[in-house]
């Protein structure tokens, strides 16, 4: 039996991140909650819906491209291994991903490269 999903359905899921994410944070571990991500942030970049673009997926489905952020202040020292998108107003942990381990030193800066969230078509 064939499976299908309309782009609007996938775009709605990605749109929840696009319209809700107000912060991108670097973390030393995978957070289990908004509170853990908020209190464990090593670096914190403000985000707006303009920092996200929804488009075609690389192989199928849809993709949300997250803009790069340069010269983000590092507020706590540690080795960043995860990046999370947070909705500060709603106290929601919207999305978490891994990143290459990078030592961060407080009172310095770090740059977040652009990255993507992709939802593939059903198989």
In N-to-C order, the SSE pattern is: HEHEEEEEEEE
Strand content: over 45%
Tally of individual domains: 1
Strand order of the largest sheet: 2-1-6-7
Helix count? 2
> What is the CA–CA distance across the termini?
10 Å
How can the largest sheet be summarized? 4 strands, antiparallel
Count of DSSP E strands? 9
What Rg, in angstroms, do the CA atoms define?
15 Å
What would the principal axes of the Cα set say about the shape? elongated
- In round numbers, the mean pLDDT is 97
Portion of residues in helices? 10-25%
Poorly predicted runs? none
Question: Structural class from helices and strands?
Answer: alpha+beta
Summary?
16% of the residues lie in helices and 46% in strands. It is of the alpha+beta class. The longest helix has 14 residues, at 7-20.
Describe the protein's architecture and organization.
The protein has 2 helices and 9 strands; from the N terminus they run αβαββββββββ. It has 123 residues and is of the alpha+beta class. The chain has one domain. The strands form 3 sheets. A 4-stranded antiparallel sheet has the order 2-1-6-7. Strand 6 and strand 7 form a beta hairpin. The mean pLDDT is 97.
């Amino acid at each position: 039996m064939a499976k299908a999903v309309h782009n609007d359905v996938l775009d709605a899921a990605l749109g929840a991140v696009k319209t809700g994410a107000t912060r991108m944070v670097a973390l030393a571990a995978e957070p289990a909650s908004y509170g853990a991500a908020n209190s464990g942030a090593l670096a914190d970049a403000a985000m707006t819906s303009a920092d996200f673009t929804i488009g075609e997926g690389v192989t199928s489905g849809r993709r949300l491209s997250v803009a790069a952020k340069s010269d983000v202040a590092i507020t706590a020292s540690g080795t960043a291994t995860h990046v999370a998108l947070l909705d500060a107003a709603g106290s929601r942990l919207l999305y978490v991903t891994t990143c290459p381990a990078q030592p961060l030193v407080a009172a310095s800066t770090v740059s977040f490269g652009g990255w993507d969230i992709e939802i593939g078509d059903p198989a």
